[in-house]
Every structure is written in C-alpha cells, then in structure tokens.
User: Fold this.
Amino acid sequence: MKKTNALRILDAAGIEYETEEYEVDESDLSGVHVAAVLGQDPDTVFKTLVMRDEKNELHVCCIPVAEDLDLKKCALAAKVKRVEMVHVKELMALTGYIRGGCSPVGMKKPYPVIFDETALLFDKIYLSAGQRGMQMKVSPEVLAEFLHAGFADLIR
Assistant:
C-alpha cells in the first residue's frame, strides 16, 4: 500500500487508522458509489467539502456521502455570515487534493474543520485518505481532536 501524505501525518501523530482501497470509477466519483463498492453504510462514509466565507477564508466540512450540506447551518457552525462551495477547479490549488480524493488531513494549510454531528454515532468513520481509490477508517473523536475540529448539525 502506498502511503499518502494524509496517512503519513496520522502516522506521525500516532493516530490509529485502517485503510481500504477500491477500484476508481471515473464515471462515478460519488461518495455513495464509494460506500457501495466498499460494502459500507453510506452514513459511515464521509465526504470532505471546502467552503469559502464572505471574507474569502476557507472552511472544511465533512458530512455523510448521501447527504447534502446546508450552507446556512455550515455558516452558523463556522461563526460566519455565509459560505459557498469552492469551485472544483480551485480545489487542487487551495488544498492539494482533487475531487474524489480530498481529505481533511494534510491540506496545504490548516483550515478550520467541522464534522457533521452524526459522525459521533459511530466508533469509526471512513474519509478519503488523500487520493482517489483509498479510504481511511478512523475514530471521529480522535481525528477531530487532532484537527482541532468541531461537530455540528450540517446537513439538510
């Protein structure tokens, strides 16, 4: 298994995780497809979304793959007036990651991270390990503590 930057960061921090690799389907990069390929409940597989606020500052939200982000709830949790999704074309330049391989760990800068509160319902959740075709399974509480992240109701 090739170690991604996100996994090297978790290793250096002593954070336990497991990885699962899967065949990437370029025609369907959705998280729901990833959950199905892995044979996992979509509620336990989280996607990483990057937002921009009115001051042009970035925020990262991790929500279950089958759910939609509520921008008003995200802004409230981030304590800003409003947020909007970063365009996919900007993702690589801002985070170092591409769509379908964006991890909250190891971005170019340490942006504020908020997990949907449903993550707390599970001992472990799946998140991108920093590349398409690889997921990491990790404790949401341990990861949130490491990332100085919070939990909030983020979904519609």
